[in-house]
Write a structure and sequence with these properties.
Layout (H helix, E strand, L loop, with lengths): L2 H10 L25 E9 L2 E10 L2 E8 L6 E8 L4 E8 L6 H13 L2 E6 L6 H17 L17
Parallel strand pairs: 3-6
Antiparallel strand pairs: 1-2, 2-3, 4-5, 4-6
Protein name: Proteasome assembly chaperone 4
Pfam families: PAC4
InterPro entries: PAC4 (IPR032157)
């Protein structure tokens, strides 16, 4: 499947607002806080491969999919904070447990966002550089969408000198 075919297919899946959905101008500033969903899709060419991304922001969780060269679903992981100590637990929902490519990525995303993460990815397990690049692009997009809180003391968030 070519990139153009995938983009056309993903644009057909766009979530249309319904009567019960909250629009982006809600008073809380978070359109997903009361049942709405935000969908973002993009494609990046990295390391001679094409990575396709889809992010769906739901109430208190994020679903992310990363496709490497194809629209194949891949392994599915669920990650959430656990008590006591606010650790992160990750489980493989679909796919083998020997592949930890998505597992460690899902764990780090929970730590960065503070939200539950459902992550599907089909990145080859023998490509750590590709995995790191895909995670970096995903985190950049999550940050630009406002799903990752800025770190305290970050120079870009400081407005007074």
């Amino acid at each position: 499947m070519s990139s153009e075919e995938l983009r056309a297919s993903l644009s057909d899946l766009a979530v249309a607002p319904t009567a019960g959905a909250i629009d982006s101008s809600s008073s809380s500033g978070d359109p997903s806080a009361e049942g709405g969903a935000q969908v973002s899709c993009f494609t990046e060419d990295l390391h001679d491969v094409t990575l396709h991304f889809q992010i769906i922001r739901l109430s208190k969780q994020i679903y992310a999919w990363i496709g490497c060269n194809t629209a194949k679903f891949g392994h599915l992981y669920a990650a959430a904070t656990t008590r006591p100590g606010n650790g992160v637990s990750v489980t493989s929902v679909l796919g083998g447990t020997s592949d930890n490519t998505g597992s460690s990525m899902a764990r780090r995303l929970v730590l960065k966002t503070g939200l539950n993460i459902v992550l599907a990815c089909n990145i080859p397990k023998d490509s750590p550089m590709l995995e790191a690049a895909a995670e970096r692009k995903l985190v950049e997009k999550l940050r630009s969408l406002g799903y990752i809180r800025p770190k305290a003391g970050d120079a870009s968030t400081c407005t007074t000198h």
